[in-house]
Design goal:
By secondary structure, the protein is an alpha+beta fold. 70% of the residues lie in helices and 15% in strands. It has one domain. The longest helix is centred in the middle third of the chain and has 76 residues. It is rod-shaped, with a radius of gyration of 45 Å.
Length: 125
């Protein structure tokens, strides 16, 4: 024990109180190191989560842009097909066939049924 006091006096002079204060500060710092490491680990995990979310956002935005491009291509193809159908419709004028029944002459006609498009029905003329 005397050698410790001698060392204290030799290193820090006769002010042993200063040595006690320094030791208590070092002890406090040593006790805070695990908490600091825990906070540092949590910050690292938050950074990883942030990077993951950012890459997920970029991937989702890329997928949305791709879907929008595909939708535009499908719409263009649809419009092209409708134009082709219109051309074919003009080129091929169907001959309207009619026939006689016991109630009179019958001719096929096209009619819009409840907004579902054109249906082929037979109607008596």
């Amino acid at each position: 024990m005397q050698s410790k006091r001698f060392l204290q006096r030799k290193l820090y002079g006769s002010n042993a109180a200063s040595y006690g204060i320094i030791c208590s500060h070092i002890l406090e710092i040593l006790l805070l190191i695990p908490e600091f490491m825990k906070i540092k680990q949590e910050n690292l995990l938050l950074k990883i989560d942030t990077l993951t979310l950012h890459s997920d956002k970029e991937r989702l935005l890329r997928d949305i842009r791709k879907a929008a491009d595909e939708k535009e291509q499908i719409q263009a193809k649809k419009e092209g097909l409708l134009e082709d159908i219109g051309v074919l419709d003009k080129e091929f004028d169907p001959e309207v066939a009619s026939w006689q029944t016991s109630k009179g002459e019958v001719v096929p006609v096209y009619e819009d049924c409840n907004g579902r498009g054109m249906d082929f029905i037979k109607q008596q003329s």
